[in-house]
Amino acid sequence: MKKTLYLMRHGQTLFNKRGLVQGHCDSPLTELGRRQPLYAKRWFEERNIKFDHAYASTQERASDTLELIVDMPYERLKAIKEMSFGIFEGESEHLARACGDLQTSHDAFVPFGGDDMKDVQVRMVDALTEAMEIDDHHTVLAISHGCAAFAFTHKWLPDLTWEKIEFTNCCILRFEYENGVFTFIEAVSHDFEQPL
Length: 196
Description:
Elements (H helix, E strand, L loop, with lengths): L2 E7 L4 H5 L12 H16 L6 E5 L2 H10 L5 E3 L15 H7 L17 H16 L6 E6 L1 H11 L15 E7 L2 E8 L8
Parallel strand pairs: 1-4, 2-3, 2-4
Antiparallel strand pairs: 1-5, 5-6
Helix pairs in contact: 2-3, 5-6
């Protein structure tokens, strides 16, 4: 029986706005970051999508985003949190980009105390597979992070590049799940200039 996973990135944070690296470190949602989840909420409501279970990473930006979309109990999962960028945490994104491109070098941040993107992929896949294998999990929402969502999606779309899917704040990635395999269906971005 096919099940559906909606994997989302959190709303804009203060570090996102300031162009700072944000992996294991956290920062609060901005005013825009508190509005962005409402666009996702509307998208779900317009399609009459109802979740039987919801998950957020253990980072506050993810749980704060989730709470703006649904009013239901949810579980926080450490395994779907963002990757660590080591000593680049809280530094300029330009500085981190000079370190290496995660698209071509999955372990670019390992020498600096960060995570290997392949390790992030394994923990994301394991955690979300385990969740979807639970009998009463048919339509699931999980709020995670940009690089973590990219790593997960890359497992099922090996030719994926950052240019093919924009992992923007509050983008929705829809997957079908069956027999241990996730099939990517679509990516949904929102026009935050449009009124709610």
